[in-house]
Amino acid sequence: MDGSTPVSRRSLLHGMGALGALAYLPGCKGGSKESVGAATESVGDGWARYKGTTINFISENTPPSAAIAANLKPFEELTGIKVNISQMELTKLVEKVSLDFSSGQAGFHVIYADPYQVLAPFSEGLVDLTKFLDKKDFPALENGLSDFISTQLDAGGRFLDRQKLYALPYDTPTMIWHYRADLFEKHKDKMAHDLGFDPTPSIQLTWEQYYAIARWFDKNAKSEIPYGTGHQAKQHDALMCDFSNVLWAYGGDYFQAGPELGLVGTKKPGKSTLSGNEAIAAAEFYNKLLKLAHPGSRTWDWDGVASAFQAGQLAMCPNWHEFAASNEKALPGKVGYAPLPRGPKRSANIWGGTGVGINANASDKEQAAAWLFINWATSPATQFMTLASEKGGGTPTRRSVYARPDVEAAKKRPSQLPNILAAEAVNEAWKPENIGLRPKVATWNQLDTILFTQVSRMLAGEIKPDEAMRSSAEKFDVVNKV
Amino acid sequence: MKRAGPSFEMRMMLPALLVLASLSLIPFVTLIVMSFSHVKLMGGIRFENAALENWHRLIEDADVRSSWVTSLVYFALTLGVEMASGIVFALVLHRVGRGRNLLLALAIVPMFMAPIVVGLLGRFLTDSTLGLYAWALRILGFEGDLLAGKTSALLTVIGMDVWEWTPLVALVTFAGLSAVPAPLVEAAAVDGAGYFQTLRYIVFPQIRRVLLVALLVRAMDAIRFFDIITITTNGGPADATKIIPVRLYETAFRFRELGYASVIGILMLAFSILMANAFVRVLGEKGLTR
């Protein structure tokens, strides 16, 4: 990532504020936490013009929102705008946003716009943010749009039209390989001897080797670790995410257009390619892998598999990198991170980032106040605050935050910013050849449900892998009317 | 000369009747209209005529049929187990002398919990990593996860509902048992009737109406069972626990196909009415509804 940006008075002040915030990190001397995130206070002009306005922010219960909810005071003092934050499970969020948009009202002004479940189906309900980006009388977006990681800006913020921007990148969870570094280190030589390859997790290893490593742990280290691998294979969105990593690695995909559909998206994705040989091979491998996995896997979503890993039940698992902070709390210094294994085609690491947008039904005043909030919430200083917050543990979407020396230094233990311990693996996972982007289509909620239901049926032994994929493809085509 | 117009009583009730009508009739009519429409949500709600498309789709939808089968299995098992165990518990409680009130108070605690809490509690107790029940089952040789298997998942969510609502059946039955005239039971004893004979010929006929009320209450609730499944299995694995309310929720709020969801909802409503009528007919035969 390149972090080179021109230094303006505003960004200088932001930077000073952020450095001030660093002084208040846990474990650092002096100061109080109230000052964290106060970077924008000194900016002045334009921030206080909507004093007295109240805006409601609906978000998934993610670490960045927890951090922002705990550190809203600087924003409220700076702007005089009161922010109410509702945090909930993603499915509930989608339901509430859907009802809010349908009502024609704006119960929620700032929307946590998941690209697939909110942005694609409801893009008409979101404000095109370019109208605020160009306004001179509003505080400028610090460092401009180029400070966001471009893939994430497209995937999380655009739909159908590259000229429009519906959301600013807010969080960026990405699935990577979590493993018990202490156990791998302890058994490395014997594993290498038995398996015939260096088992150290890396992007060079294949899914078949991942399987062999998991089986090795099951056979040789049962007294230390009950299971070699665990997965998020509950009949839930999580199962689609877990399976997609393997699907793409094996060269399969949801539609002919492949990863391109993950950037700007489409309303007409065409016929599904899930019945292709690559997708079937992926399903066959996934079925084999899950037979070996912890039996609880079929009841776990991402939280479940993270809890099991942190409880010392699993030697390794694929999961969102933002669990690094809680891994460090549960197993300090014992966890390592790597990009996911490769299949015959590539390594694929599903990206689950989300943007924040504005409800188009809100009044002009509310929209403007909401813009000030999302400007602040995605600013480098606030992004750094969420990274450092004990309440949160999100990871930044800004290049400039990753370029900070203190963030760079935190990539090694002992780290004050535990999520950054996964940064090296995540940076590799974000490379265009390794990132996994779901198709951004308006019917995704149905397609997602079809896929995870059919894969769940496969895992339950009800249907064979090829049936699961063909059946998914047929149902996709019915939903998409092709 | 007789005064024209509604009676005094009717005039007094009229506002309440109008409120009730608006709360039930308007949504009902809307539901019917929606079932023949494609409902567009963005930019304000719009109904576009779909004629019989939604109803035709229902006939061909194997997934919805499968959910109905699961629902009926769930319905029969839940009601059967809750009624049987509730009655047994009430009979035991009725025989207890000292500490009966304490036992009763403890027994009814589950039904004061929100179903979502029951689901969460059940999920933790059966979790194969840290669950108490999972630990007990492992000692008995069961290595799997209760919510991971198709049959075990359905039985487990049924078990959670049974745990929560059996106390209600027990409470209602216990109230009925307390109202059985003691001289009748004593007379049966004098005539040499055993415990089970007394139950069959004296007690059950006396409490039959109360049992039917308990059955009716639980049946109406079981038709719309939702929370525990959502929090535990999300309808899985392999749709094994996707009963019709979960399918309805998914269609309406996840897929936003409100027209088709209305059709599913109308069928649920019809099923509820049929069940209620069946129970009321039985009650009517026994004179309770007269």
UniProtKB/TrEMBL annotation, chain A:
Alphabetized InterPro entries for the sequence: Bact_solute-bd_prot1 (IPR050490), SBP (IPR006059), TAT_signal (IPR006311)
Keyword annotations of the record: Signal, Transport
Subcellular location(s) per record: Periplasm
Extent of the signal sequence: none
Cross-referenced Gene3D superfamilies: Periplasmic binding protein-like II (3.40.190.10)
Protein name: Extracellular solute-binding protein
Similarity section: Belongs to the bacterial solute-binding protein 1 family.
Species name: Pendulispora rubella
Chief location of this protein within or outside the cell: periplasm
TrEMBL record, chain B:
Family: Belongs to the binding-protein-dependent transport system permease family.
Major localization listed first in the record, in broad terms: membrane
Top-rank lineage group of the source organism: Bacteria
Membrane-spanning intervals of the chain: 12-36, 72-93, 102-125, 168-189, 210-231, 258-280
Matching PROSITE patterns: ABC_TM1
Species the sequence originates in: Pendulispora rubella
Protein name listed in UniProt: Sugar ABC transporter permease
InterPro entries (UniProt xref): MetI-like (IPR000515), MetI-like_sf (IPR035906), Sugar_ABC_transporter (IPR052730)
